[in-house]
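Person: I have long wanted to understand how a fold can be written as tokens. Underneath my words sits a plain record pairing an amino acid chain with its backbone structure tokens. Those tokens are not coordinates but codes from a learned vocabulary of shapes. I should like you to check that the lines agree and flag anything odd. The protein I mean follows directly.
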Amino acid sequence: MNQFMLSQGNSEQLTLFPHIIELGVVKNSAMHLNAFQKVVIPGVKIFYISDGKFNWNIHNNEHTLYPGDVALILPGQEIGSTTGVLEIGSFSFLHINAYLQGKDEIILDKWGRLSGNEIIAMSKILLLSSPVVITQINEAGKILKCIQQELCNQEFGYYTSVNNHIEDLLILLTRQLTRQKNPGRDFPKTFMKLDEALRRDISHQWTVDEMAALTGLGNTLFNDKVKNYTGFTPLNYLINIRVSEATRLLKKGQINISNIALDTGFNSSQHFSTTFKKLTGFTPGEFKKNNSYNE
């Protein structure tokens, strides 16, 4: 796992910013088990997905996040993976100090330009929209990158610039929520059907031609669409589904590893073992030994 992290009390770049708890970037090239357990967040934490596909439980609701999506966790809310797995992909995050007063007001430290009335209005919008997941808002990623650069470079005026960027981010997210008619992802039905078909017949040796045919798209457009929505090529997306299903079966502890390999579409036990370890860091046998349970 590749990680950039600034944290209050440990990073001198945040000395002038007591309202910033953490700022970071995570680039995950392999699945990490037990790396994203559910935790209650103090303050406000904003996640921006750069690459990959993440299945997270946010405030007791399951969400699938794709590149360009934002998850905003409010004071006292919980976030984590239902399985504890941190999937392959990249995301950046900003964690700022805040607390909930009553049921409808988020109190921020006094560091910015927003008026008291604006903060109250923002609080109501965010809390009424909870859990806050906003789709396809790439501008949020650009703002987070600017904050990181300002803190690292520390050029003239960076204190004002950082605080302005944080406020701009909160304003952007709040405005987008007021415009977003449908809080759920407007994900094409064709791709939902594709995902269902792959999972239903996961042992089949799917080709890109077959997958494209299910969506009614040509190969080139299909490749582009899948990469845009998931961050993966179609075959890598399929491999992730296979490993995800294999993980579920291994946890049962009653099925032979060779059978699981065949049932999830791998050509051989060796291919299964190599791929599984590459994505999770464990061999199937190691994972089964440490995580199996009887249903």
The chain has ten helices and twelve strands. The first helix runs from residue 116 to 128.
